Amino acid sequence: MNQCCSKKGYFAIFFYLILLVSSFASYSVITHTVQQNETLFSISIKYNVSISTIFDWNPGISPNTLKIGQSLKIPQPDGYLYEVKKGDTLSSVAKLFFADVEDIKKANDLSSSTIVIGQKIFVPSKIIGKGFNNEKSIIWPTYGTLSSLYGYRIHPITGERILHKGVDIAAPIGTPVFSAEDGVVDYVGENNGYGLMIQINSGKDSYIYGHLSQINVYSGQYVKKGQLIGRVGNTGVSTGPHLHFEVQKGSKLYDPLVLLPSRSNIYVLDERESTYGVGGE
Ligand SMILES: [Zn+2]
To answer: Which domain holds residue 96?
Structure first.
């Protein structure tokens, strides 16, 4: 009898230990205190993280307003957090980062694919982007559902018939937005109907990313294709969380779908325009 119960006790301790181990995060967060002469760039080199990562963990900072003594959160290794929303699965979260489910499980020490609303999933930078569709010169900037196409349409808010200058991709708030092409950041900030937006110039074309909740680049910065530049939001004139993606060449507008890779492969989008009411500017 005693032996039986002590065995049970051992099992209990064993399972408790497994739970404890599986709840350990596989990353840590350092608090860095800004020193004299430090810049976002020098801090990014010091900790081997991208500037985008520093922005993402410290919303609202700007390279021009860094102050000596200011605290910054820096993850180790380099990576991003995603907070699980209603309807998310581990597989859908992996797709948002164009990553592999198994890599995300490993990075979070998850023994199963069960996730719960509010859970914070850590996505190391090195596993992001495996699923990018590179068949054309630009890549899809975010993983979601095409909710509005380029062209003349009845505006979802004003009811007027006007040109929709880009495509809308519906995706949960916090979904990462990647630079579709290499280029220099021309503009970041609030811009009327576009809400929080980024404009990146590749030298050939100019790309606009609108309605963001978070901006992870600064004006004048050089960004690489596939770099995480911000997060999907619902800012500006918008009826729900989505990315407005627009392509300009000089004063001329392009239908982004002509330039983007096909949607028939994995990690590209479904077209469900009629069933999604999400749109805006
Ligand atoms: Zn739009």
So the answer is: 28-127
